[in-house]
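Budget justification aside, the reviewers requested a transparent look at the raw inputs and outputs of the sequence design task funded under Objective 1. We therefore reproduce one unedited record. The lines immediately below are the structure tokens for a 362-residue chain.
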């Protein structure tokens, strides 16, 4: 077992919590959960694939530390981030007589994390939960910040709550089994952090992309640490996305619209965001906010990863912006767009849909 562990704190007064990062942390989960102040009953929420690959060390560690564990298996995939899965969790918590200090542990990607988090937010009006993210996307993004929720048939994430976990445990070893396509989708969010906040992170990705994609653990820990610390700082400033947290939506206005127009079937979220970031950067350049060299660096890095960069030819800019108007971030007919002002700097700008359509290169 590796002893290496780094801890960041998300500082939100009484709701502050640690993000532990390292190698082999699943094996130390029991000890770390003890520190999070949970009662002895734990329900591990996960899916069959992740359970097969990563459940045993986690369960063993909880048992060694004296916790009583229940396993709640949910079906795989975004289409199951719904009421039926939530009901499965509630049913098991009720039949297992879970109490106010019992704890949910989300072992999986963003789907499992969002579901378990929302169940924790609502069961008995709130019980503790811990995130053990197993995709890169969940490790750098969805497990931190307390956004929880489920989809409605009319739209993604329409039902949810802000509810912070008691701790986040990031074990880089689990990424060794992650399919490459999922890894790249998570990497898109890491690139986003570089663009919005940290030129050094962006430069590190440019320099060390190959060893990173070969899953060099030191590098993974470095970029996950940098990403989580950016996300934590943004959340500390604006926990409920009243304003500044929307900076995390760089590339997402177009990305979400693209996912929606393609019925959530063509692109993984990170792939749509990669295309969205290229387009948002081009719009920023055409708008006079971003210099050509930064724009080219962003395009080159995304392209080198193997993530998609181009809008499919079937996508018509006017349809894309129409889809953006139904996004939660639009108001008074204008869209709150995150413009890039070179690598590491952004600003918000309200753009009319027709302005965006005119600037989208197809
Ligand atoms: N709460 C937030 O702030 C936030 C932020 C971003 C995204 N999200 C949500 O996250 C979800 C997407 O999350 P995701 O990209 O992690 O997808 P996911 O949860 O669907 O996981 C992707 C796939 O990878 C598999 N998997 C997970 N870990 C694995 C591992 N270690 N080895 C092998 N296979 C593994 C899963 O079984 C699944 O099939 C969306 O629902 C999105 O809305 C939430
Ligand atoms: Zn995203």
């Amino acid at each position: 077992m590796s002893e290496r562990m780094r801890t960041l704190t998300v500082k939100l007064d009484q709701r502050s919590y640690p993000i532990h990062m390292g190698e082999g942390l699943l094996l130390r989960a029991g000890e770390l959960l003890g520190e999070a102040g949970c009662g002895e009953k734990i329900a591990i929420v996960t899916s069959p694939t992740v359970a097969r690959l990563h459940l045993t060390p986690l369960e063993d560690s909880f048992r060694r530390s004296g916790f009583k564990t229940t396993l709640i298996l949910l079906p795989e995939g975004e289409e199951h981030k719904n009421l039926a899965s939530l009901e499965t969790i509630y049913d098991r918590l009720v039949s297992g007589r879970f109490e106010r200090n019992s704890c949910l542990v989300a072992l999986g990607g963003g789907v499992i994390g969002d579901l378990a988090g929302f169940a924790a937010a609502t069961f008995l009006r709130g019980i503790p939960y811990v995130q053990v993210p197993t995709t890169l996307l969940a490790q750098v993004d969805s497990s931190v910040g307390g956004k929880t929720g489920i989809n409605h048939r009319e739209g993604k994430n329409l039902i949810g709550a802000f509810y912070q976990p008691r701790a986040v445990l990031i074990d880089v070893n689990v990424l060794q089994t992650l399919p490459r396509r999922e890894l790249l989708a998570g990497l898109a969010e890491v690139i986003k952090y570089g663009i919005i906040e940290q030129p050094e992170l962006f430069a590190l990705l440019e320099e060390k992309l190959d060893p990173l994609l070969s899953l060099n653990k030191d590098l993974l820990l470095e970029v996950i640490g940098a990403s989580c610390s950016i996300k934590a700082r943004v959340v500390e400033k604006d926990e409920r996305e009243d304003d500044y947290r929307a900076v995390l939506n760089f590339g997402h206005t177009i990305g979400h619209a693209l996912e929606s127009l393609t019925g959530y079937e063509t692109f993984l979220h990170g792939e749509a965001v990669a295309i969205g970031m290229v387009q948002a950067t081009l719009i920023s350049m055409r708008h006079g906010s971003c210099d050509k060299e930064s724009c080219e660096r962003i395009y080159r890095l995304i392209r080198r990863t193997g993530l998609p960069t181009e809008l499919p030819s079937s996508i018509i800019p006017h349809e894309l912006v129409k889809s953006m108007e139904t996004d939660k971030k639009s108001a008074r007919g204008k869209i709150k767009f995150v413009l890039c002002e070179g690598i590491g700097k952004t600003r918000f700008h309200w753009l009319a849909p027709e302005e965006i359509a005119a600037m989208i290169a197809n």
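The radius of gyration is 20 Å. The pocket of zinc ion (ligand 2) is lined by residues 141, 189, 252, 269, 273 (CB under 6 Å). Computational costs for records of this kind are itemized in the attached budget.
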